[in-house]
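Subject: two folds for Thursday's group meeting

Dear M.,

Sorry for the delay on this. The cluster queue was jammed most of the week, so I only got both jobs back this morning. I'm pasting them in the order they finished. Each block is the input sequence followed by the predicted structure tokens. Could you check whether the formatting survives your parser before we put anything on slides? The first protein is the one we discussed after the seminar.
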Amino acid sequence: MTTPQAGPLPVTRRPTSGPRVIVRILVGGVITGGLVVLLLTHHDLVAELLDAIGDARPWWLGVAVAAEVVSIASLARQQRRLLSVHGGHFTLRSVLATTYGGNVISTSLPVVGAAAAAVFAFRRYTRLGAETTIAGWALMMSGIFSSISFGAVVATGAILTGHTGAAISGLLGLVFVVLPVSVIILGIRRPRIQAGVERHAIRFAGVLRRRLPKIGGRVRDEGIINGVDKIASFRLGVGGMIHVLALSLLNWLADAACLAAVLMAVTGTVPWQSLLLVWAAGAGVSTLKLTPGGIGVVEAALVAALTGIGFTASIALGSILLYRAVSLWFVAGVGGVTLLTLRARSRVTA
């Protein structure tokens, strides 16, 4: 994802006002407004949530919060490991702040939230000292490993509940969607595959130049070739791949553990055999980004999954609202504070 220029350009100061500032204000306003709207339009759910909290066991709620902290920290450690592929050093604190900030952006913006969060993370990592190629590669590999581990968790849940067909479908999805991309990334060291990637990337850049000249005009064929050469030189190694995959699994499993802890807090029991599939019902729907934070959609999917295995509607609703308070609102709150802190620091250092 390098964007080198064809030749040296004069050094110019970035304007401190104008369109760039206006865009930042608008983005910040959309993110803040999205969080406020979520609270104001769902005040009835907040009242039901307070009732659920009042009857819940506090110790298990603490376990749920701890599990969610572990989930976010695992994702941050995964990306930190990928960013250090060429020996670079990034503090866990800085990567963790980026992860929380990207999470709240992804949560607050429907449909485009994931893309906006990726752009935010890419810019943050390059400002922290990562080369553009490494930052882009790390985010791409993070998504691949997360997809592989999510499919593995869902397949495991299907096997535990005896849904062999669902397990096979999940594994086939990994084979036909994730595997080809993984083969390209891992096999790019081979000259034939590397040449094919360069050829298609240059062709895509040509389309960009014709249709989006402002963006495509900054992409040079030489830069693409150099970027692909650099990616081909990355060596994560077998040990590194196992480490990243383990952190990806921990990210998902810790979030499922948060749901289990909430169920213990509210009901005192956990449907261990069906837990992963119940959790996957909400996690899968949340990736669609149909509403900010998946509000309404995720809750409906999780409540339906719990009632489908024998929970009463009231218990299921209270449990899910409490789980979402931790996995959505708590994380979004920390992310919002993180974004404000990062913005304040950037103004001081500007």
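Second protein, same layout:
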Amino acid sequence: MEPAQPASEDSHITYRSGVAARLAGLSPETLRVWERRYNLTQVERSARGQRLYSAEQVRRLSLLKQLVDQGHAIGVLAPMSMDQLQELAGAAARQPKPQGPLRLGVIGANLARRIAGSGRDGLDLVVQQHWPALDQVALAPPDGDIEVLVIELSELHDSAMPLIVAAAQACGGAAVVVLYRFCASATIRALRAHGCLAARVPADIGELLLLCRSALAGERLPPVQAPSAPPELRFDEHALFTIMASGSGLKCECPRHLADLLLMVGSFERYSAQCASRNDEDAQLHNELGRAAGQARAILEVAMERLARTEGLPLPAGIAKEDAGKKTR
């Protein structure tokens, strides 16, 4: 299969998205979803607007596929550098093959039941002892040989830190995995400073097994990174109102409807950034809403740009300047 050649530099080999996906072991549909949600790579485009991937970008995609297959979440991997991804892959390769099921101490009302009811996925995990809540560990200290202490707290606050440290000490040399759904970055850093592996509650028991093995091998998840900001605004309100006022060869009113959608999504994105928050969880929720709106806005802007180019509608000055710059190269 012949790799596509960018017009700007014949010696620089690139691959169209379908070829890049196959070389990385991905389906084209998966690659499109990853790019849309996580903006994985800054790719070149051909004269016809096709996405072109370099050999290095294909290697990165292949490494992401390998790590996702090992149980890592793509949302965690996407912001990492190539060096971080290679380090994570190397640590997984060096991890010794486990001998027998892992012996767990479990703190959490539901986690022990999930493990017991997981069928074959849970055969490599054995719950030696279970406590419904953190403060009960002191009342019933461990009486078995526990390899990994797993603590599940959906809403993890600083106030739980002393109890987590005490529980870890009560379990002696056991590795500690702390699972959460909502938690401040500062609390996660404090947990890791105490030697705990902190991660979001996994979707399945297979992923929990990987976390436990990583903790037992002395590995730690990469530092918490700030989520990537949504792509910059390409169609401001003035540009959208200009498009709405322009004529179009289409019999429908798609340009006006799409511009109206962009105005609404952009307004909600700004509103989320300024919304009042009662506490840290509120602030985190509003940040997530703002990022989601920003990603939605970016997708709609791509559609608007394509529509504007096809129908000859006025483009914003910034996009027109980019076009002029490409022509002079």
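Two things I noticed about the second structure. The radius of gyration is 25 Å. Residues 49 and 306 are 10 Å apart (CA to CA).

Cheers,
T.
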